[in-house]
What we know:
The protein is α/β, with parallel strands linked by helices and 498 residues long.
Amino acid sequence: MKKAKISLAVQFKTAKIDPRIYGSFIEHLGRAVYGGIYEPSHPLADEDGFRKDVIEEVKKLNVPIVRYPGGNFVSGYNWEDGVGPVEQRPARLELAWGVVEPNLFGTNEFAKWCRKADTSCMMAVNLGLRGAEDAKNLVEYCNHPSGTKYSDLRIKHGFKEPHNIKLWCLGNEMDGDWQIGHKTAYEYGRAASEAAKVMKWVDPSIELVLSGSSNLGMKTFGDWELETLDLAYDKVDYVSLHQYYDNRSGDTDSFLAKSMAMDEFIKTVVCICDTVKGKKHSKKQINLSFDEWNVWYHSNGDYVEKWSQAPHQLEDYYNFEDALLVGLMLMTLLKHADRVKVACLAQLINVIAPIMTENGGGVFEQTIYYPIMHMSNNARGSVLLSELECDRHDTKEFTDVPDVDCIATVNDEEDEIVLFAVNRCQTEDYELKVSLLDREGFRAVEHIEMAGFKPLDGNSFTACPVKPSATEAPVTDGKDSTVRLKPFSWNVIRLKKQ
């Protein structure tokens, strides 16, 4: 058995965790909305057509914020199509995904669903085919109390109280030529700056996310952030990052090291933000919104009939190695909690999602559901500074990869420390020593693990074998606890003040 050690001190905290780091995403894409969160004909639908079984699954994830309505979809979306009497709403050709959008579900329905699911909305505005005026009008519709055209229109539509949406995305992936209304960095920076200005004039309390590069591999990455931030720095609060990872090569070792690429991506964007801050001699700090991230490749290339409605689209069925990487990516986000304040797993239901549904039928939790649930419910409070000692290995794509990756959080209100660990080794056990340097009286009280599965094992509507289980609580001796990390495993270790 190999040995590793992580040293912690409760007095040394790297950052307070913003709960919005555990956010998610619902786009008008595939069955995320229709057949996902909204299915009026379902036996478990409530009076608003929302699936109650889905709401319960979302509540178990403790999702603080959900980005809506896109995604690529938003760049061609007229928000006015999705409000008012449903029978008067037009169906539209939805060009981003090649389907028909019936507009049976829109802004007000989503706001109502968020309240029922104990979450809040992160709203995106269309800066593809539309611009500042429409963005301003949507803020007025959602947030102004009454007495104006759009606030009174909301009231007429049956929503007397404002939705008070506080976080807004200024478009989506405008650097990509696949995007409806694709723009150069200068064109987008100017459009975002003007939209941000009037949106905050309507409601000064809102926060705004500038659309960063669509992924790390974009040729314009870096230059895009520099130019758009230079144009909009004083008016925005966050810059977005998007990144998906895959294992098309079948190289599991390299796949599980891709969280290291995510780590470098975040560091680079932080440097760019601070470069612009220095150039402008500004005291304002721009933070990060990693508002699309996940594993995504299983469903790429699936056929979708042109102009169908709510087809089975981008429905990845995740396996166990996907769950380990999702856990590693979440840990990476927490390692940068000083700057990453918002993050959205893409997406929440059916479309590259942890929750899957059948139309008219049941629901099941994918393998990736569990690391998300564990961290969202347990990693609250602050991230602890830690020093990890373990062996390292090289892969075909990465060098100096830690066999074990760990992060620890402390919740002072609960007198609780929670450690999350992944053993990347497929064949070797690790004995992990958790050394608490500055506090006595903490004892390891729980160890939850996902272990003993093959990399490609997964769950389905008929069987869900890949799930966590409780194992023997770690042994505590003085300030140290010893934990066995099985090969190729996800681990949650809880230490409680006695």
